[in-house]
Amino acid sequence: MSTLTAEQIAQHAYQAGFRGDALTTAVAVALAESGGNTRAHNGTPPDNSYGLWQVNMLGSMGPARRHQFNLDSNDELFDADENAKAAYAISNHGKSFGPWSTYTNGAYRKHLAEARKAAQHVTEHH
Pfam families recorded for this chain (predicted)? Predict the structure, then answer.
């Protein structure tokens, strides 16, 4: 198991394209979804979710998203960079976090302070 710090998650999110408040939110969502575990997997329907941002590949979403994200296998989503790129696309380039239940139910909020600090540090060093 590989568990990343908030700052490491922020680095992957930044590389995928998240900026500003969206970077902070993305880090907080990842922490709420996976606890920073790159190998997190929830296979209980209505989920078949992988990696940091728990990208859901259930049913017909799987083939469509594998094509969209240029993946040969769902397991590629255990790679933090691939997962971050998928999350960036799913979030409409950081504009909508509605697809994540930890965002809609507010669970991500308890990670905002840590996420904000990590996002600021990563942004300052780019």
Answer: SLT_3
Among 3.30.70, 2.160.10, 2.60.60, 1.10.530, what is the CATH number of 6-124?
Answer: 1.10.530
Give the residue extent of every domain in the chain. 6-124
SS (H, E, C) 67-92: HHCCCCCHHHHHCHHHHHHHHHHHCC
Please give the sequence-ordered ranges of beta strands (E in DSSP) within the chain, or none if there are none. 41-42, 49-50, 55-56
**24-80 pLDDT tens trace:** 999 999 999 999 999 999 999 999 999 999 999 999 999 999 999 999 999 999 999
pTM summary value: 0.97
From first CA to last CA, the distance across the chain in angstroms is 28
